[in-house]
Amino acid sequence: MELTVLGSAAPYPRPGIPCSGYLVTGGSGALWLDAGPGTLAELQRHARLPELDGIWISHLHADHCADLLTAFYALVYADQAPSAPLPLYGPQGTAARLEGFLSNAARSPIERAFEVRELHDGQRVRLGGMELESRSVEHGMPGYAVRIDDGAASLAYSGDSAPCAALDDVARGADLLLCEADGDPPADGPRVHHSPEDAGRTAARAGAGRLVVTHVGPFLRPEEALGRAASEYAGPVEHADAGRAFSVG
């Protein structure tokens, strides 16, 4: 299995660094994992949209899903028409959100581009030789983490989430944990993200073999996030640099 970072910026893209988005290849499959702004362009360095087995979206904040809108145009009105609509896994309301943005006087035919399948806690599906298990996590809105297994290796992805038992379960014994490390927790109010220390602690609790931190906010340098995560986790810690590929397992 291989993880290619299409982008990891939060909460907006930077020059040369799109927002959250990843390409996962394993077995005979290819999966677009989150579709933040700028990731569609980077995806095309590796695969065309019709070559994907599916798309998986952790939650409906724009920095994780906005490129679905331009993907729709590529699939329906341009040169990347698929032989069948792409399976699109996303939280409840994904189809309505796309339709609301894309439609004007007439409803946009999103079913020509996507076969929308709503996520639920504990959902298991197979895509291109990979098994995906989605778990509901704590982000102040419907949000999901995912574990991906191809029979030889396992990858866990936090999406955006505060530390929680469901994420620990998803990451348990994973070869690689891709975990957000947005920054410092708020002084008051509910927690909806991991700090770098939280990412390290989640990896340690889960016994993950390797930690890759991503979604580092604008007030923290990646090197600082790495050091802070490493203070809580004894295994290898790396940053999800845009364009970098990680071999999983």
From TrEMBL:
Residues 18-215 form the Metallo-beta-lactamase domain. InterPro entries: Metallo-B-lactamas (IPR001279), RibonucZ/Hydroxyglut_hydro (IPR036866). PANTHER family: METALLO-HYDROLASE YHFI-RELATED (PTHR46018:SF4), ZINC PHOSPHODIESTERASE ELAC PROTEIN 1 (PTHR46018). Pfam families: Lactamase_B_2. This is Beta-lactamase. Residues 190-200 have a biased composition (Basic and acidic residues). Signal peptide: none annotated. Residues 181-206 are annotated as: Disordered. It comes from Streptomonospora alba. Gene3D superfamilies: Ribonuclease Z/Hydroxyacylglutathione hydrolase-like. GO terms for molecular function: 3'-tRNA processing endoribonuclease activity.
